[in-house]
Amino acid sequence: MPGFRFVIPWLCLLGLLLPVVSVALAEDPPTTKQQATPAKLEIGLTVIVAGTGDAYIDPRIRDTAAKLAALFPYTRYERKSLILETKTLGEAFRVRLPGNREFLATAQAKTEKDQFKLLVEIPALLKTELRLSDGGQVILGGPTVQDGVLVLVLSAQSLPMMKSATPSTAKEARP
To answer: 79: Cβ–Cβ under 8 A, 6 or more apart, which residues?
Structure first.
């Protein structure tokens, strides 16, 4: 059976390719609507100045006070600002920080584990990639400023898809 020798390599090759093809076919291709409407999310940054001295916790950050006390050796925590912006994936979130620094965060993708992949940067000081759960937050100890140390609380949350595209919106709350 000389022809049978030629069939066996092809069957082996087919056996190797079949799992790859079946995985590719099992994934749903994005619909036209999904391609036309990029994912929107709300990115938030709470800017806190921490320091030593008389114990004080700004009442506007009481919900994160226990986490702050567990992470940092400071006794004073004052919220300087809270910035919330609606962004699409790939769009930069920029905030001017005390001490003439800039904070940048860009949501690059949303993973299958419902996490945002964020590129976070404070130029000349920090550049890293984070994975942040949808609705979660991460606390970063930052650089020193005149009256203490910056503590940054970064959050990200998905927003429901809208039928019409709207430009980025920004909300800022100051003390």
So the answer is: 46, 47, 48, 58, 60, 61, 175
